[in-house]
């Protein structure tokens, strides 16, 4: 039995098991809010769900590749994004407890009006759309070359099977399966690391001494990730939906633990890339290491990709259905929720077949939403409605300067890869904050 057949077996068997084990949602609370037996998820369940829903296939591929490029510095740099959990956990706690708001949409509508809420909804809908194709493409790449029939069939089958159990239970299914997937991820990661460290020529010292702590060799990305962490979490409904389903204290505790443990998971996964670097491997770090260790480890790495992609995909489906049904108030109904899940699954898969130009699902969109920083960081300060638009649109403009590579080089003060990303974010976040407060200053000086 060749490796592709084993991979098909893993995808089909694991998805069918998750479908059978997933709870069937019978009420809107079960489907949209993950209420089970009239109880919200506890801190252990919520922490596991948060971590695995963010350790998606794209991110662990990136972590391994950054380990290959920059050593352990690359892994630490990418783990910087997990500060997002701590920021979101602390700020949303205040928004809920002090502000009394029950959702991000309610907060934005109350403070900035329906137009602001609509613009925000467009941003997060694009984010969810990106999540679908960026994760399923990683799965496809493990089954065949881009554009091959194996590649496309893997994407179709994987999406349909994940959609099946997501439709069955909504957010209840998503959080329930997240716990199983988190346990699986932890075990599989330990198996890989055990194999890597059992090699005599590779030790913990090799990991610690790999890479250089300089801007051009990883720190550009690290500081960009930290800056983006003050806006990034708020445009990701997969994360923010989970911030309103349990009590404020349980939520804050879960988010803080997820910040620490999620970062550790990413750094540990980047060790695969560090090992690849010591061996002089080129290409996709995780794939090359898997091949070097033989069929079993390659299958373990593939299975990690499958579980992490599935956990993100089911969360994306449930977040999109909640966005339409609850946040935008279209139809608060399970049937409508299920139909919207199917819609995003189809729409999100289309770019793969149209061979659309693929943008990074994280760094680029992370820059485009830096305008959300002052909106949430200074949530309790009263400002005119215009402040929202000035900040958000400025963030989008800076994001586009990065996409089209038109940011002035004179404003970039470090060298190397990700230097433009860092400085676009530094200047962008300064501009967004200043423009956010200008209408307030003008009003008070009248």
UniProtKB/TrEMBL annotation:
Query: Which InterPro entries does the UniProt record give?
Result: Na/Glc_symporter_sf, Na/solute_symporter
Task: Select a single GO molecular function from the record's annotations and give it.
Answer: transmembrane transporter activity
User: Can you say where in the cell this protein is located?
Assistant: Membrane
A single GO cellular-component term from the record reads: membrane
Main location class: membrane
Q: Which residues form the signal peptide?
A: none
The family database entries (PROSITE patterns) matched by this protein are listed as: NA_SOLUT_SYMP_3
Listed transmembrane segments: 6-24, 44-64, 70-92, 112-130, 150-167, 179-197, 217-234, 255-276, 292-313, 360-381, 388-407, 419-438
Pfam families with a match to the protein in the record = SSF
Family statement drawn from the similarity comment of this UniProt entry: Belongs to the sodium:solute symporter (SSF) (TC 2.A.21) family.
This chain belongs to which protein, by name? Na+/proline symporter
